Amino acid sequence: MENSADTTYDEDIIRExxxxxxxxYVGKFHGPVPHGFGKYTWTDGAIYxxxxxxxxxxxxxxxxxxxxxxxxxxxxxxxxxGSGTLKGVDGSFYDGSWHMSKYDGMGMKTYPNSxxxxxxxxxxxxxxxxxxxxxxxxxxxxxxxxxxxSGKGVMQWTNGDLYNGYWHNGLMHGIGYYxxxxxxxxxxxxxxxxxxxxxxxxxAGSKIPCDPLFSELFGYTNNCPSVNxxxxxxxxxxxxxxxxxxxxxxxxxxxxxxxxxxxGGCSLSQEVCKIxxxxxxxxxxxxNEGDMVYEREYMQGVLIMERPRYWDELKATSVKNRKKNLxxxxxxxxxxxxxxxxxxxxxxxxxxxxxxxxxxxxxxxPLREVRSSDFGPRARIRMYFPHEGTQYTPPxxxxxxxxxxxxxxxxxxxxxxxxxxxxxxxxxxxGGDSLKELSSPxxxxxxxxxxxxxxxVIKTLKKTxxxxxxxxxxxxxxxxxxxxxxxxTKFFGLHRITLKSGRKVRFVVMGNMFRTELRIHRRYDLKxxxxxxxxxxxxxxxxxxxxxxxxxxxxxxEKSWREALFRQISLDCMFLESQSIIDYSMLLGIHFxxxxxxxxxxxxxxxxxxxxxxxxCNSSDSVNTDEIFRQKGFLLVxxxxxxxxxxxxxxxxxxxxxxxxxxxxxxxxxxxGTGRLRVQLGVNMPARACLKDxxxxxxxxxxxxxxxxxxxxxLGIIDILQEYNMKKKMEHCVKSLKYDxxxxxxxxxxxxxxxxxxxxxxxxPEQ
Length: 767
Hints:
GO cellular component, one term: plasma membrane
Helix content: 10-25%
Pfam families: MORN, PIP5K
Structural class: alpha+beta
Enzyme class: transferase
Keywords: ATP-binding, Kinase, Nucleotide-binding, Repeat, Transferase
Strand content: 25-35%
EC number: 2.7.1.68
């Protein structure tokens, strides 16, 4: 027994060992385990030949799979780890860093079609900074995310076209400039690969002042007198971008999706060609030709407005507006992110601390029906938050403050009613990201904050508004519970912060009506009154909330949808009238689709690119062609819960609308390049927009260019915290002496409701 126990192994002798499962090892051993150099053959034909460490495949080696793929490089614990090369059976080749058998770190991959990517990888996917070169010579240098071009980058096509700006999900998205091969330049905004919004077109040879905003976006220096796009070297731009993005810096993770094969660049539109030919054929003189620019506005790639301007005139009248409107428009959405040092920074920290404390305290309490004691100013949670912390509150880096949370059980039940998870609610408002501050669209002076995911809007309130909300809250709770499709503002929390100085700031948390994948091109605040209800033209920007007299469209929706809409508006107005509320308004958001007769040409031009880029057609696979219904220019399909692009927003919870053309079935709205959207009352509602004067004369003639639009509407009744009190009665009396009493906003509640509904009846006429 002792002899058998003392069996010895010679480490210098190569031995062959057959394992019970049929695998074979030939190589060196250390004791009974493989150690050193050896060859391992699996039963399926795969082979590893290289270094071993105490029975573990570790060191440098070569792996040959049964398929014919070959890896040579470093291996740790049986995983491809470190640096190495992989030759795929399809002809692809990768040379770079590995982690856990996936591309990770700096590496270069050559694809079977001869495309080449060189840059940062993470977990097998491109993410961070990199350069992609297509086999036809088209190049992209910039940022990647989830296997697609996202962030800041430059693409140069083989025909000489060049785009420098922001990308998202593989498409041009955000601010940027596009330089055509003949020297014409367009600077503006894109949305999902199409020009969308305002911009400026510069004819060939134009000189652009080197403004700091250009410098920040495109990498130019501040002291250069001007930049001639026609003479700018594309290779130099790519080199500058490479330097800016620091190509060899490790970056976060991204996806290993198929790389879209782009053949050629975007062709110059017919409108640009016309401008180029007309500007060259009708020159005033050589000196002044370069001073002419063209203000433009696009809608999903279709030009809807153009105005020739001289650069000196444009610069003198709109430099300040351009900075606010175009160049500072961020891809991530509206609002200014609150940073450390911002005037609202400590207020934001206090709000986040208080909500985190309140929601954490109330959530463990078993859900129950609300009681009368849950309402009123005495139903509250109060707590002091010193910066050093207490046994009940955590330490923090903000200033000391007192916190009050009103009616916590009621608002907890309202959040449950709208299927808002407590953890999601806290993460949205109190997570690692800062809130964003919005400018107030009204005269109230309230400050608006937006959560980073844009699910919730937080608004500061006056003391009188808090009293009104607490007074109406019992009836509001009943109304919202009884009518799931109500259009009234959804409230999710009411709070107060008191600072040591004695300053009190009151907040209400609401659902964001405009949380959508679509771009809201126009916003209207409609009251039904006319006195002072217009916006000065010089103050109108793309993000301006317009008023009653600014509205030049009427909207046609399906008959059954219109009936349901006005039924709900009437119920909501009855509730507000019962609470003596006035001054409320219908907030209307409009997303314009390109006119159908113009978009068809655009779709034909885009087909070759879309067919090669599956990601650009994310809705086509989910559409059942047997269940397609037409609502004018829109595509409606039978609703499939698992196919919609996103879950309902925090401002809705009601049932979906039904389309008569679909056999009175619930439907989804399919939008090319966006996906499928749930159609609910006031949310994602397709409609037809007609100009008012045209509607009165010739009706909605679909052949009349730029007169009829497919639109997607978002509706909600807001500003419901103004009572018809003595102050408003006095306002009515004073203004009635000067203006028509029916035209002013301050009228008694029943008249206000009737006028409000009557006005909306004209905005949404019957077909």
